[in-house]
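Training component of the fellowship. As part of building independent skills, the fellow (R.M.) carried out the full modelling exercise for a liganded target. The chosen ligand was 2-acetamido-2-deoxy-beta-D-glucopyranose. The inputs are recorded below so that the supervisory panel can assess the work.
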Amino acid sequence: MFYIFLQSIFIIQIACVINEIPNSFCLQSICELETNCGLNLTNSCSYDSQNRKVCGYFRLSEYMYKNCYFVGFNPETESIRDAFHRCANNYTCASECVKNVPNIAKHKCNGISKCQKIAMAHFEGRGPYGCTEKSPERMGYWSKVEKLSMEFSRHFMVLRQFFE
Ligand SMILES: *[C@@H]1O[C@H](CO)[C@@H](O)[C@H](O)[C@H]1NC(C)=O
Ligand SMILES: *[C@@H]1O[C@H](CO)[C@@H](O)[C@H](O)[C@H]1NC(C)=O
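Fellow's submitted model of the complex:
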């Protein structure tokens, strides 16, 4: 048991060195922070601090949906609004959207991790260039995402030991 503990610490250190949180843990963490990943969704939609309508697992806004180029939108069968609601309430689709938002800002904020870009773009629906705004609130949000992601990674690594 102690050996496993040591080994998981070692793996976390490697993860810190390469400084890259896997997308799946990053998105899972954002989902937890936004809505308890679905558990706190009483209604699918609510309003954010800027009074924008936000929906689904990640509290996605139509503005953010536009910034991920309308993932999964089929113009032949539905309106953008319907596609937005469908995507926001589907974890796979919504997480794909959240992950893609920072892509527009390709060369901005080089040198920070992909997960940090995603988190900073997502905070309060700021959008692709969120990574340029290092307010204490935005940085605080990122550090919560980072911490939670590391916890997810650690649980995953520890679990994996038992199956190898
Ligand atoms: C979710 O609901 C619980 C219990 O009502 C509350 O303590 C928690 O702060 C909520 N989380 C979010 C992200 O709203
Ligand atoms: C959820 O979204 C994914 C990706 O867009 C799609 O492949 C899947 O069919 C959707 N699931 C449902 C139940 O609509």
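The panel noted the following from the submitted structure. The chain has one domain: 2-9+21-163. DSSP finds seven helices and two strands in the chain.
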